Amino acid sequence: MNTKPKVLLTNPIHPQLLPLLEAHCEVIVAPDTSPATIARLITSAEGLIVRAQLAPNVFDNAPHLRAVVRHGVGLDMIPVTAATARGIPVANLPGSNTTAVVEYCVAAMLHFRRGLALMDNHLRTESWNAARPLADQGTELRQSVCGIVGLGAVGAQLADVAAALGMRVIGLTRRPDAMPAHVEAVSKQALFEQADVVVLCCPLNEQTKGLVDAATVALMKSTAILINVSRGPVIDTAAVLAALKSGALGGATLDVHDQQPLTGHEPLFNCPNLLITPHVAGITATSLHGMSDGAVHTMIALLRGDRPANVVNPEVFQTA
Fold first, then answer.
1. Whole-prediction pTM value?
2. What 3-state class would DSSP assign to 155?
3. Cis before 261 (ω within 30)
4. Which phi and psi angles does 185 have, rounded to 5°?
5. Which of 75, 160, 198, 232 has the CB geometry, 3.0–4.6 Å to 147, for a possible disulfide?
6. Containing H/E element for 7?
7. How is 73-117 classified by DSSP, letter by letter?
8. In whole angstroms, what is the distance from residue 173 CA to residue 153 CA?
9. Distance CA 169, CA 86 (A)
10. What is the C-alpha separation between 53 and 35, in angstroms, rounded?
11. 3-state DSSP assignment of residue 194
12. Euclidean distance between CA atoms 279 and 282, whole angstroms
């Protein structure tokens, strides 16, 4: 008789870590992430590893659930309050994909500032002489201004990298007293007016929802770049697209979107000077291994009754 606890994965984890989880648990991988599928499979699960958005009422169908682990950092995918009300500990993995997100941001900056993909395309499809002049339009990051909204793990490491590249770094955070020494704390208006590159890496909450509206976009330089690795609703997507189409904004990179996944029919697919990716800023082979390693070890610890330090609602242990 199989006495291993059942653990449901909303999505596959790194194949190198799957055997470790299977040694301790009976693993079920959801065939899709629809609310109906998750609701059906979670009924017998004691553990849940999350890589997809959960329905607000997902725990109504989980009478045996006693551990939830986010395969990553952001907790907006999980109804934490509902879990806490049921005494279910929820853990995440702070710092597990920080470097991946920071490197994505730098790649996005260089995508627009150096135009390598465009040059490659012109060289392949046209000629050397057609591609060569494109380099004359490139600009260097050094001595430009990087504005960072949200100085958590990602924002702080990005500030270090931007400063090392010779950029002046300004920041907007709820805790300006905790700002890194090489980052100048500024107001929201000053940040969007001064920055040549604005990076959004703040959490989504009531204060940040709609933070970048039409009035805010209007403050930005016409040559500026906006990079969103936060969450889709932090920006007014329509306002950003309008600014790109009119030439009022130099470029934008959107890794996160109002509704995910994208269908291919959204207006942003026909927008110029826009780089879009499918919520992958934090995903590399390296970070995926690290997140899976953290998720598996945290899940095993929770199921055996331990109290890991990365549990975000430790009050559930006090009432257990």
1. 0.92
2. helix
3. yes
4. -75, 130
5. 198
6. strand 6-9
7. S--TTS-HHHHHHTT--EE--TTTTHHHHHHHHHHHHHHHHH-HH
8. 12
9. 43
10. 9
11. helix
12. 8
- Give the pLDDT confidence of 287-320 residue by residue, as tens digits: 999 999 999 999 999 999 999 999 999 999 986 5
Owner of token pair 């009050």: 315
Contact in structure between 49 and 8 (CB atoms under 8 Å): yes
Rounded distance, CA 200 to CA 229, Å? 6
The stretches in the chain having pLDDT less than 70 are 1-2, 319-320
Report which of 199, 182, 13, 186 is spatially closest to residue 103, judged by C-alpha positions.
199
Q: What is the pLDDT of residue 175?
A: 84
Angle CA 213–218–224, to nearest 5: 105
Q: Give CA–CA dist 251/201, Å, rounded.
A: 17
- 3-state SS of the chain: helix, strand, coil percent to 5? 40, 15, 45
Instruction: Give residue 320's pLDDT.
Output: 54
For the chain, what is the radius of gyration of the CA atoms? 22
For 113, 150, 227, 305, the CA distances from 147, given in Å and listed in that order, are 16, 10, 10, 43
Which residue blocks in the chain are alpha helix, DSSP H? 18-24, 35-41, 80-85, 98-114, 116-125, 128-131, 153-164, 188-194, 214-219, 237-246, 285-303, 315-318
Helix-helix angle 98-114:285-303, to 10 degrees = 160
The DSSP secondary structure of 58-72, one letter per residue, reads GGGG-TT--EEEESS
Helix or strand holding residue 9 (H, E): strand 6-9
